[in-house]
Amino acid sequence: MKFKLLILLSFLFLNGSFIKKEPLPQKPNIIIIYADDLGYGDVSAYEKGILQTPNMDKMAKNGIRFTNGHATSATCTPSRYGLLTGIYPWRKEGARVLPGDAPLLIDTSLVTIPKMLKKAGYQTGIVGKWHLGIGKGEIDWNKDLLLNPNDVGFDYSYIMAATTDRVPTVFIENRRVVGLEINDPLLVNYNKNFEGEPTALSNPELMTKQKWDHGHNMSMHNGIPRIGFQKGGKSALWHDEDMADIFLKQSLDFIHIHKNKPFFLYYGLHQPHVPRSPHPRFAGKSGLGVRGDVILEADWCVGEIMKKLEETGLDKNTLVILSSDNGPVLNDGYIDGAVEMNGQHTPSGGLRGGKYSLYEAGTRVPFIASWKGVIRPQVSDALVCQIDFLASFAQLTGQKNPSADSQNLLNVFLGKSKKGRKNLVLEASNRLAFKKGDWVLIPPHKGSSIAKEVNIELGNSLQYQLFNLKSDNAEQNNLAKVNPRKLEEMKEAMKQIVDNRYNFDAKELELK
C-alpha cells in the first residue's frame, strides 16, 4: 500500500500537481509591434529567406513562433481595423486602403483594444502608422484634429495619418500637427493640385532620391514623389531617413513614463513599406538593397524595445507580440532596386502570392509572442489571427469579449495550448477566401489573376480553388474538381460565417 502511495505521489509531482504555479499578473503590460508589408520569409527565424533579423529571431527563440498566424487582410487598412476592433473588416463598408485625408473608419461607439484596456486601468498609446482615417472629411490640418486615435481609446498618439507614400508627410501628436507654424498653413488635397506646386510629372528633376514606377507621381517632398497633393507646412514636414528614430524614441519614452503602471503600446513600424528610406546607419548594410536595409532598421527597432524592457525589468511583466499587416511586395510603386537586389531572398517564404493576394502569402505573416518567465520557447502550428487579440486580451484582463468575430485564444498566445481557430475568413480588396483545418477555399473572383504592376498573383479565377495546405503548402494543386464533396463542405461552412451575404452560385462571389 505504501509502495502504491509512493508511486502515486511521484506521478503527481512529476506532472506538476504539487508544484505551486505562479498566477499570471492581473494587468501585464501589452505591446503590439506591427510591421508594414513584412513577409513570412523576411524574418530569419522562419528559416525561409537569407536576410538576417537577429532581434526578431531572439524574440522567437525566447517565445512562440507561430507558423500559421494571419492578418485578417492582404492590405493594411482593413488589417489594422480588424486588429483593433476584433471585427472582420469585410463587414465594414469602406474598409479599404484609405487616402491620407479619409474620415475616421472606426465607429467611436465600438469597443476597441485600447478602449477596453483603458477600462481595465491601462495607459494606452499608439506610435507610428495609423492609416484608419481622421475626422469627418474636409480636414483642416492647422487646427485640432478631432476623431483620431484619441477618440477610439488611445490616451496618447504620435502618428502619421496614413502611409509614408501618401500626403500629408507630417507627424501628428495627439490632436496637432507637430511643428506646424501658423504663418505657413498645411493644405492637402487628393483630387487636384494646388496652383504652382511642382509634381513628379511637372518637375521630374526634383526626384533626387526615388523615382516613381506607378501611381506615385503627385506632390514632391524630400526628393520623393507621393500620392496626393500638399502645399505649405514646411516646418512640419518629416525627413524620411529619421522616421525610425523618431517613432522609436516616442515608443521608448511612452514605456519609460508608464513603467510603474500597466500600459498598452501599439507600435506601428513603417518598414518595409515604400518609399524605403533607411537611416544612413543601415543604408547598404543588408546586401539586398533598400528593402533589405529598412528591414534591418526595423529589426534594430524591435531590439531596442526589447532592450528597454530588459533594462527596466518590465520584460517579466510584458506580453510582446510582433506581426505584420499583410504579406510582402517588392515593387510597390517606386524604382528603388528592390526587385533587382532581392537575389535569392524569399520574402514570401515559399508561399504563393503576396500583398493584395488571396493566396497564403497575402495574410500569413510573421507572428511571434514573447513574455519572459511566462511563455515557454516553442513553435506552434495553431491557426491564429490578429482579430483574436481583442477577445484574448479581454480574458487576460478579466473583461468580457465584446466581439462575435474575435475568439479567446489567450492560452494559445501564451503557449499553453495549440488548439487555435477552426476556421477563418480572409480578405483582399473585398474578395474573400476561407480556411478550415488544412483546407483553404477561394471562391470565383473576376479580374486579372496577376497584378502586373507589383507582379503578384491575386488569387482571382473564374473557377473555385480548393487547396490542402498540409500536402500542398504552396497551393499548386487545385482540388476543387477532384474533391467535390470537400468543395461543397467548405462552401457551406463559409456561407454560415458570411451570413449568406454572397451569391455562391454566381460566376463571381459578389455582394447581394
Whole-number mean pLDDT: 94
Q: What is the 3D form?
A: globular
In CATH terms, the superfamily of the largest domain is: Alkaline Phosphatase, subunit A
The CATH architecture of the largest domain would be 3-Layer(aba) Sandwich
Strand ordering within the main sheet:
7-6-5-4-13-1-14-16-2-17
Structural class: alpha/beta
Q: What is the CATH third-level topology name of the largest domain?
A: Alkaline Phosphatase, subunit A
The number of helical runs is: 11
Assigned CATH class of the largest domain: Alpha Beta
Give the N-to-C terminal Cα separation: 72 Å
Strand content: 15-25%
Number of strands: 24
Give the tally of structural domains. Answer: 2
* Helical fraction: 10-25%
Unreliable segments of 5+ consecutive residues = 5-21
What value does the Rg take, in angstroms?
23 Å
How is the biggest beta sheet arranged?
10 strands, mixed
Can you summarize this structure?
The protein has 512 residues and is an alpha/beta fold. It is built from eleven helices and 24 strands. It has two domains: 29-186 and 232-413, Alkaline Phosphatase, subunit A (3-Layer(aba) Sandwich); 423-497, Arylsulfatase, C-terminal domain (2-Layer Sandwich).
